[in-house]
Design a protein that fits this description.
2 copies of one chain form a homodimer.
Chain A (H helix, E strand, L loop, with lengths): L5 E6 L3 H12 L5 E7 L16 E2 L2 H5 L6 E4 L4 H13 L4 E3 L2 H18 L3 E2 L10 H7 L6 E7 L2 H13 L3 H10 L8 H4 L2 H15 L9 E2 L7 H9 L3 E10 L4 E11 L12 E8 L3 E8 L3 H16 L16 E2 L4 E8 L4 H4 L4 E7 L5 E8 H6 L1 H4 L5 E4 L10
Parallel strand pairs in A: 1-2, 1-4, 2-3, 4-5, 5-6, 8-10, 10-13
Antiparallel strand pairs in A: 7-9, 7-11, 9-10, 11-12, 14-16, 14-17, 15-16
Chain lengths: 406, 406
């Protein structure tokens, strides 16, 4: 528990940092005060009016201020974020962070630092903006019943796919609109490559299953290479393509996780998750499926999640990573068979990737080809570079992988 | 925190009690054991196979057992439930309860008992079955940003209305089907009168706003009197009638809550909450609307929620009722204007209830009449007995009440 009033040292004053500044002004009953703000460039013009006296570009100004009793870190640079968070934890200061890439890469060390120095790190804002996914996985779904967490975790790519499938726009126009609306960065690679979803999934997996899986071990395919032929194929079948992240317990005491575009039929909950929204389906024994839905992108929704973590820490909350101490933690595997659609032009997929079984094969004189085939996930990972070629696009058929109907 | 292993004294072995028994067998990592079960009738035949030696019909057998370190109470009798829960709290024993009627009526006393004797009472299972609404309101939405909680909280009445609006069945057939499917009791009064939703709403309100409002102060109108004319009216307008419970902050530092049938248009989240499902929309500044959706009725979903509370208590969790200590708690009011549809036959509504303004008035020689009118909620409460007459049915138009679009 930290004493009242909450006196915050804030790192970062970009979209989320400004949103947080605004939220703190609104939440008067929080009795929280932003005492200092560390930014890269003090002189930069910003939308929010901040007293210049509290701005600094030296992180030690925050760490050396004895009044600061909580760090909030929302910088857009994974290395700086790592330095800030580890410094705070080593000094026993509680930290609230939204830096998913940094957290997903360093979670084991960050957990160790919390245990060693008695500090606490909260990061619900790092996955699904305003939806309280991590806290609920850690606390409410803290038992064996949980079987699967599956969802749309990236608002930018979902916004683009919504424009394509709901508004009939072509992909490049949709991407431009997403950038104009502020849902995609000027460099959208992080979002459309699936990396953003992957980092969130790695964090979610630790809190869902109790096991840390390093990002580089996870099959991650994005929507970068989606083409008109793929969009047409999906439309003809009456389905949408969505970028889906999932972690699933298998029946043999193992589990797997992956990020892939997926054909989603209208009866699934996630079919209706459109625009910049995120939606997560939590499936378990006894309760079947629960669905959480909300704004996943943008400064304000993320800032509201930061505020929830600030208040939680004020009341003494910390993640206990309880599931990591379970005796029967499942084991991570990539030895599962996926049924996938792979579209290609020059790259001759069937001769390059070992395939278990081909269900359908289409080729045309225009050079457009696709197969629908069963492939082992381990082989897909091994041939990742081939799947990343610009003429190749891969989509998962969820029905085949386990007998599911969400 | 309670010591391991968790040794449970269970009261009640009806649908939920049996579901809980089953869940405990499945959740092996919980290391929880049901040590004794108190039932009204030991000899009664049950679907679940329980060792007869652990059954008792004397509650003292549980309270006097020094090994029992947690009480789970799911009896279907509010008075017995009150006796069990208060006895446990007075002896400092933690209790997990799903008895919404009892909890909604006695919350202030139950909070006092927890504070006085240091025990803890958890009751997430009492509202929305498997959806973690109370825990999230208490912890995650613990700040000023929360503006409104609105949802479908009763699975039985929602199942009936779904059969009517999605399957074109008439009301009496739908009610019979709900009873056959086990979603409605042989006496469904509690569900269709809105009382079940009311009790859940009272509990939700305390955790959302920090204020206890006694059930008898709240406008509660159910679907008991719905007729073919009302169903036809809604169908013609392209909307569904749903039984909706809501608590809303008003702009003047006040708040209100009520349970009423409502015309719901297709663009609203709750429009798609069908059958026995529950759905809750949480609206706040910054995060706009979040939507939680899941199974609200049935033994297994409720049992999974009981397990979550058991594990939470095992880890030392208790409700702190933090919002009750907020300085600026809003004040409950019923002085708000609703726009309602009131259908009547013999009862001459316009001459009996003081109405602010009539927007539309319809009458026919067949004796079917309705008005669409603005009415003050205080007056609706005062004339509750008139609204309950079998020829009268009232539906809320949500658009008018505040400027909302959820």
């Amino acid at each position: 528990m930290i004493s009242h009033p909450i006196s915050i040292g804030l790192f970062g004053l970009g979209t989320v940092g400004q949103g947080f500044y605004h939220v703190i002004q609104q939440a008067i009953n929080a009795h929280a005060d932003i005492r200092r703000i560390c930014v890269r460039n003090i002189a930069k013009k910003r939308d929010v009016e901040v007293n210049p006296a509290i701005l600094t570009d030296n992180m030690e100004d925050i760490f050396n201020d004895p009044e600061v009793n909580l760090i909030v870190e929302v910088v857009d640079d994974a290395e700086a974020s790592y330095r800030i968070v580890t410094t705070a934890l080593r000094r026993g200061l509680p930290v609230v962070s939204g830096s998913k890439a940094m957290i997903a890469r360093h979670l084991p060390e960050l957990i160790d630092l919390q245990q060693k120095y008695g500090g606490a790190l909260l990061y619900d804002a790092s996955a699904c903006g305003s939806i309280p996914v991590i806290r609920n996985l850690e606390e409410y779904y803290d038992n064996d019943l949980l079987l699967e967490v599956k969802g749309i975790l990236n608002g930018s790519s979902n916004y683009i796919l919504s424009r394509v499938f709901d508004h009939g726009e072509d992909y490049s126009l949709a991407l431009r609109k997403a950038q104009e609306a502020g849902f995609a960065e000027s460099d959208p690679t992080f979002d459309i490559s699936g990396m953003d979803s992957l980092f969130k999934l790695v964090i979610i997996t630790l809190h869902a299953i109790g096991v840390y899986v390093a990002p580089e071990r996870v099959l991650t395919l994005g929507i970068t290479n989606i083409g008109d032929a793929d969009i047409r194929y999906a439309r003809e079948k009456g389905v949408k393509i969505k970028l889906v992240a999932q972690v699933v317990k298998l029946s043999d005491g193992k589990f797997t996780l992956f990020v892939m575009p997926e054909f989603v039929v209208p009866s699934r909950y996630i079919y209706s998750v459109d625009n910049e929204y995120n939606g997560v389906v939590i499936r378990g024994e006894c309760y079947d499926r629960q669905f959480m839905f909300g704004k996943g992108a943008g400064g304000s929704p993320t800032a509201s999640s930061l505020l929830s973590d600030v208040m939680a820490r004020h009341h003494g909350y910390r993640y206990e990573y309880k599931k990591m101490n379970y005796i029967d933690r499942p084991e991570f595997t990539t030895d599962v068979t996926l049924k996938v659609y792979i579209r290609y032009c020059e790259t001759d997929i069937p001769s390059l990737i070992p395939i278990e079984r081909i269900h359908e094969r289409y080729s045309s004189e225009s050079g457009l080809n696709y197969i629908i085939a069963d492939v082992n996930m381990t082989r897909l990972i091994a041939h990742r570079q081939i799947l990343d070629r610009p003429d190749v696009f891969t989509v998962n058929f969820p029905q085949f992988f386990l007998d599911r109907d969400d």
